[in-house]
Amino acid sequence: DAAEKGGYEHYMRKEIHEQPESLRQTLAGRLDVSAGDVDLDVSFPPGFLADLEEIRIVACGTSYYAGRYAAQLFEELAGVRATVEIASEYEFGAGRTPDRTLVVAVTQSGETADTLGAVRRANAAGARTFAVTNTLGSTVTREVDGTAFIRAGPEIGVAATKTFASQVATLAMLAVAVGRDRGALAAADARSVLKDLQGLPGAVQQVLDEEAQVREAAREYGDGEAFFFVGRALGVPVALEGALKLKEISYDHAEGFAAGELKHGPLALVTPDTPVLAVLTDGARADETMNNVTEAQTRGAPALGCVSAGDTYDTLDVSFEVPNVGVAEPLVANVYLQLFAYHVANDKGRAIDKPRNLAKSVTVE
Ligand code: G6P
């Protein structure tokens, strides 16, 4: 066991640290930066992508948040309406055309019963289905029309970390591929996104090199009564995922939401004992988010922010620097939030790799 953890005390920390390598594998051989194109080795019937009306992503847990990130990229890069459904809530629904809808199931294990149920409902409605998964030969791959593998390598920790990063990276490549195929994305714009993706492994490594700073912040703020995670745009799914990670492994109350919603309710809960963690990067409407963070600070809350390199928000109590990688920055910021959750939970002596009541793969609906 100790040998398998490669010197780390927990699989989760090992897997957090594997992200530069797992992301390299995810991207390997798939980016053609000079052409502004992607080769994911997937194919669709002729004309299908051009006529596409909607991409509907279905997923659970962390994979659902990867889907929330991806939906924004599909709209921005592929020029197609994209919606995300919690798999257990998914129905094909009215007003949609099955043969112009692509249902994308995002599932690390490929075995989550709720997600398989959603795929079956989509298939029954006559929609085209597609899986984004980590697991060769998994059930989902046998039930969909096409699959892209995220190639993150095995993940043992119950709390998903490296698979989230690789899911988002794979979906980002799919968004570029679909956008190029549909003529919605200019080569120059595609090139710039692909360069940012190429920069991901190195950017994540730079974050990992700052782990001591996160450990210290976890010590200083880890005893909060509750933790609020906020962001806008691509920062929203990362805020949601940051809160999920913390609650899963530390058992602390943590909530993530769109920063603009703070004033519509959660602000009533903000006190000097409720740290606020914010995504303040490119792709996450940082200045507007910071205005909301300031509202929380006015009520005495400490504020920790993940900030794009080169930007500064002087009033933050802690500022974590995120290297400049455009639309991938919130995904890099997420690594700080993973480390924060890990160290808060570790300081409390929690069973990090096997949190109470949770399972790695849930095969009942
Ligand atoms: C379980 C795990 C989560 C995971 C979710 C979806 O709840 O504890 O970490 O995000 O299932 O899993 P999947 O394999 O479908 O991505």
Automatic annotation (TrEMBL):
Active-site residues (renumbered): K360
Keyword Protein transport belongs to the record: no
Protein name: Glutamine--fructose-6-phosphate aminotransferase [isomerizing]
Intracellular or extracellular location(s): Cytoplasm
Covered residues, full protein: 265 to 629 of 629
Known role: Catalyzes the first step in hexosamine metabolism, converting fructose-6P into glucosamine-6P using glutamine as a nitrogen source.
EC number: 2.6.1.16
Domain spans labelled SIS: 44-184, 217-355
Catalytic activity: D-fructose 6-phosphate + L-glutamine = D-glucosamine 6-phosphate + L-glutamate
Organism of derivation: Halorubrum lipolyticum DSM 21995
Keywords: Aminotransferase, Cytoplasm, Glutamine amidotransferase, Repeat, Transferase
EC category: transferase
GO biological process: carbohydrate metabolic process; fructose 6-phosphate metabolic process; protein N-linked glycosylation; UDP-N-acetylglucosamine metabolic process
GO MF, any single term: glutamine-fructose-6-phosphate transaminase (isomerizing) activity
Record's GO cellular component terms: cytoplasm
Description of how the protein assembles with itself and partners: Homodimer.
Source species, domain of life: Archaea
